[in-house]
Amino acid sequence: MFSILRPFIFKIDPEAAHDLAIKSLKYNFLPEDLFKVHNEEILETEIFKKKIKNPIGLAAGFDKSAEVYNSLFKLGFGFVEVGTITPKKQYGNPKPRIFRLENEKALINRLGFNNDGSEKAIERLQKNLPNGILGINIGPNKDSKNRIEDYLFCLNKMHFFADYITINISSPNTPGLREFHSESNLLELLNKISEFVTNNKIKKNLVLKVSPDINEREISYIIELIIKFKINGIIISNTTDKNRENLIGKNKNELGGLSGEPLNIISNNLIKKFYKEVKNKVTIIGVGGVNSGQTAFEKLKCGASLLQLYTGMIYEGPGVVKKIKTELIDIFQKDKIKNVNEIIGINS
């Protein structure tokens, strides 16, 4: 059905199409059985010691304001991450701010943490408790005078509803946000978060989401600090504001973060580098270009225990998880793999 509708959907402005998708999901009319596959038990795994049906999650950025997470669980995702949620509601950057690169199955966005704010998100989560494993991605407001305080505010307000909290320091669309990748800034941020969590007796899994544009030196101290402050997971990676050389789409030079297929190899290489250092000490969630069983398989072999996608669903439609699961099971059965955990990191 989606393959028939896609030409018409792609004639609509990308952000208008996204808003239409959110409104459609609010009706929650698609039956969960439609997205189940045979032999899915081979994909069963864990996220922070909680069992999930498969390792495929939805990345932050789709359900920015925690509106349709329970409908998304029904599409077959093993877990869902909402956000990025900021303390106060914000509009984000001026429109247009999402651009398709159809030949590359990619997007460029410069949304800028547009969301309804923490108060509205909490109201929704209180009324409609999550039916599955939920991550909440948090970040600072663009005009914040103290960005660390914004992280602490959101952590304090949102942790009740989350299985894990993602600390997003990696969007290229909030000026200065990536400065938290510097050793001194990251040390200060994680130290303040660690103190806050301890003082407030918050027992919640914490995840750091990093940029794909970091260099070798940054990898070393990021690993050192996440282990020092007992960060439970790392998401590799966010969108890239570089790597335009091989693109051919007319929108390739738009400012913003590039996602989709062109990010696949970039994120895989970064996953390998992190996995070599952390092994099983930290959970790696691999993101970037996941849109098939083969791309999912490669990321697992690079060292990701779990996966996330977003752009893949834009191009493949709501059946993308079913497609990935089916293809991944076929690969597993062909290679006589009995469980996801057998292959994690074998290519690192």
Helix and strand content put the structural class at alpha/beta
**Poorly predicted ranges (pLDDT <50, ≥5 residues)?**
none
What count of structural domains?
1
Task: Please state the oligomeric state of the protein chains shown.
Answer: single chain
CATH class: Alpha Beta
CATH architecture designation: Alpha-Beta Barrel
Radius of gyration: 19 Å
Distance between the termini: 39 Å
Main sheet specs: 8 strands, parallel, barrel
Spatial order of the strands forming the largest sheet:
3-4-7-8-9-10-12-13
Which percent bin holds the helix content?
25-40%
Mean pLDDT: 93
Number of helices: 11
CATH homology group: Aldolase class I
Q: Strand percentage, roughly?
A: 15-25%
CATH topology group = TIM Barrel
- Shape verdict: globular
Q: What is the H-and-E element order?
A: HHEEEHEEEHEHEHEHEEHEHEHH
What's the β-strand tally?
A: 13
Write a concise keyword list for the protein shown above.
11 helices; 13 strands; three-stranded antiparallel beta sheet; alpha/beta; 348 residues; 16% strand; globular; TIM Barrel
